[in-house]
Amino acid sequence: MNIKLDENTTVETGLGHGVHTTRDEGLTGKSDAEIWNAAQSEERFLITQDMDFSDLRKYVPGTHHGILLLRLQLPSQRLIVARVAELFSKEDAETWSGCLVLATETRVRIVRP
After folding, report:
1. What is the tens place of the pLDDT at every residue in 20-42?
2. Domain boundaries, the chain
3. How does pLDDT run across 37-53, given as a tens digit for each residue?
């Protein structure tokens, strides 16, 4: 799975996947549309904390390469890394292509096409 980390999640995840960060690509501070277009043109699964990407009318499941929206109460780099690593080790993330995945500290909700 190829992944793009949004600037609010640009930390080393240790996922062992093809991970690109908005920081490394000079997209820090760019609009959601620019980040989205980069992720989609590269066929990457987007990991973000940006609630704008939760709009199912704009980001219709099945029309993109997938979004993981992290909704942690007290997000820190350490907690983000830990939660993402836990999700990718315990969940079948390979089936998330085209889905909106909402994750809190204790729950995962997957909106499939």
Report:
1. 888 888 999 999 999 999 999 99
2. 2-111
3. 999 999 999 999 999 99
User: Which residues, other chains included, contact 112 with Cβ-Cβ below 8 Å and sequence gap of 6+?
Assistant: 61, 62, 98, 99
Beta pairing partners, 46: 4, 67
Pairing of strands 67-70, 45-48: parallel
Task: Tell me whether strands 18-21 and 67-70 are parallel, antiparallel or unpaired.
Answer: unpaired
Q: Indicate the pTM of the whole model.
A: 0.93
Q: What is the mean pLDDT of the chain?
A: 92
End-to-end CA distance of the chain: 18
87-95, long-range: CB < 8 A, 24+ apart: 88/13, 88/15, 88/17, 93/1, 94/1
